Amino acid sequence: MPRRALVTGLGFITPIGNDRATVTTSLREGRHGLAPVTFLDNPDLSVKVVGTIKDFVAETPNWRDWHFPAAYDIPKETLRGLSPHGLFALCAIAQALRDARLETPALHDGTTGLYCASAGSTLLAFHHVSRLMESRGERCGPLGVVSSIAGTLNFNLAAHYGIRGAVGGFVSACASSSHALGCALDDIRLGRQKRMIVVGAEEATAESILPFAAMRALSTNPDPATASRPFDAERDGFIGAGGAVAMIIEEAEFARARGAPVYAEFSGWGQAADGYSIAISHPEGAGLTDAIRRALTDTGLTPADIGYVNAHATSTPAGDHAEAKALQKVFTAAGAKPRISSTKGLTGHPLSMSGVMEAAFCSLAIKDGFIPGNAHLRTPDEVCAGLDLPRETLATDPGIVLSTSSGFGGSNVALIFRRA
Prior knowledge:
Elements: E1 5-13, H1 20-29, E2 34-36, E3 49-51, H2 76-79, H3 84-99, E4 112-117, H4 122-134, H5 144-148, H6 152-161, E5 167-170, H7 176-189, E6 195-202, H8 206-209, H9 211-214, E7 243-251, H10 252-257, E8 264-273, H11 286-299, E9 306-310, H12 317-330, E10 339-341, H13 344-347, H14 354-368, E11 400-407, E12 411-418
Parallel strand pairs: 4-5, 4-6, 9-10, 9-11
Antiparallel strand pairs: 1-7, 1-8, 2-3, 6-7, 8-12, 11-12
């Protein structure tokens, strides 16, 4: 029998909650976590809304100015090397370990690995490079590199938790943490690791979000209650967000032998690229169609077996259009009609952490028996004809769940979860 993988722990620092109970309530009740913002004290900027992280203050380069819940006891020597999103990630992992009933010493024997996803900290990169240039090369913080570049999460978190198994970072834009999950699953299936921690994290700062405005990818809607509306005919772009989500995946027999709690089985995955554009999805959803079909093949399932799809849909006109086309090709054309929703109507789009965040949402939905609705959806785009897009959360078992992710360069990933 091939090795199977179970989801045994979750940790959340998100716009809709910083713990499992709050996140679950937000998903069930459709409570969004978006709020007005004035970046750079400039009210003339077109970006007016962001997915905020509550109870954390970490918008400056100096860790001494940060504030976070007292429940997280983080040594100063650890804080010195962290970025703001590294702080979020460390707290999300701490939650996930408690949730999985794991103590830190259990991570030290080489059976546990760590895969991370982020774009790095543009806030800290700008800060350290600016100091370097202003001093004509004579001043730069000694931890400037390890706290800011794309690998900052794996550098800091592996050292902090004493991880001796596989450690790596994934950078495929908004598909990054889904790629991390897929590769983590493969490591467990192949017997390379018994347990994998996967975490994705991002910052919601001017440095990380405003550059997307130049691409015309961000919504200019100033109303938090309608700004993020995936699949809606009036959508005009995504709402940036930050935070961190961690998942713990364990080989099934290994997990059961220690009496681990179980949310769901992580059954399989697929990936494919568009080979079309550096930024825009293939208009017919070609790569995502292939990724979904490969995930179904990997798990031996048919389109009719899927009960719920947690769509990547970010609320951009082009991206949602392409995803709707892919879902029609895979499901509608086969006579299948799963429920479909994008939880980004509640959270906004946290870039590379969105895959693991939504996989964790799917795990909650499977465990607790509900299907999140499409928050803020009023009039579905005509391209969504034939798709089942419930407005409100449904108190029904989602069955087998598919979660999709798409990133710049045409990277597409599909993940499949089911009740264990």
